[in-house]
C-alpha cells in the first residue's frame, strides 16, 4: 500500500520524527548502501557489518527526536553507524592493542605514509581490526588521536602507533599487489 502525504511542506526529517513508516523506508533506501560501506570498513565480516547497520537504523529511528538539526541528518546517522560498529567490536573483544613503538618515530614518517593511492575497501579488509578502527576514525571520520583514545579507551600513544602500523601495512599490501600485477602481466 502506497502512502501519499497531504502536506507537501513536510520534509523527510519531520516525517521521520513522526515515526512514519514510509519516511523511514525512504531514509533507509537512501542510506543503506552507504552505511553498509561504512560498517564494512570497521567490521570485516559482511554479515556482522549488516547486523551493525540494522541495529544502527533501529537506533536512528528510535532516537530521531534527539537530532537537533544543528548539522546534517546523514552525518548524525553515520555517527550512529560508526558507534554501533565500535560497540560491536568492543563487545566481542576481538581487538588487541600493542604499544611498543616509540611515538616520536610516527611523526617522522607521517607525511611519507599518508599520500598513496589505493582501492580502500580491498586494502582495509586486510587490516587487523585494531589497525582498521584507528585508521577509519582518524582518516575517514577525521577524529583526533585524543578523540580516538577516548572512544576506544586506549592511550594516545597506542592510537598513534596503530595508525602508523595501519598505514605501513596498507603500503606493504598495496606494493605487493602492484608487484603481483606486474608479474602477472610479464607472464602474458
UniProtKB/TrEMBL annotation:
It holds the Pfam family Sigma70_r4_2. Residues 121-170 form the RNA polymerase sigma factor 70 region 4 type domain. GO terms for biological process: DNA-templated transcription initiation. InterPro entries: RNA_pol_sigma-70-like, RNA_pol_sigma-70_dom, RNA_pol_sigma70_r2, RNA_pol_sigma70_r4_t2, RNA_pol_sigma_r2, RNA_pol_sigma_r3/r4-like, WH-like_DNA-bd_sf. One of its GO terms (molecular function) is DNA binding. Gene3D superfamilies: 1.10.1740.10, Winged helix-like DNA-binding domain superfamily/Winged helix DNA-binding domain. Keywords: Sigma factor, Transcription, Transcription regulation. Residues 27-93 form the RNA polymerase sigma-70 region domain. Belongs to the sigma-70 factor family. ECF subfamily. This is RNA polymerase sigma-70 factor. It comes from Kaistella jeonii. The lineage of its organism: Bacteria, Pseudomonadati, Bacteroidota, Flavobacteriia, Flavobacteriales.
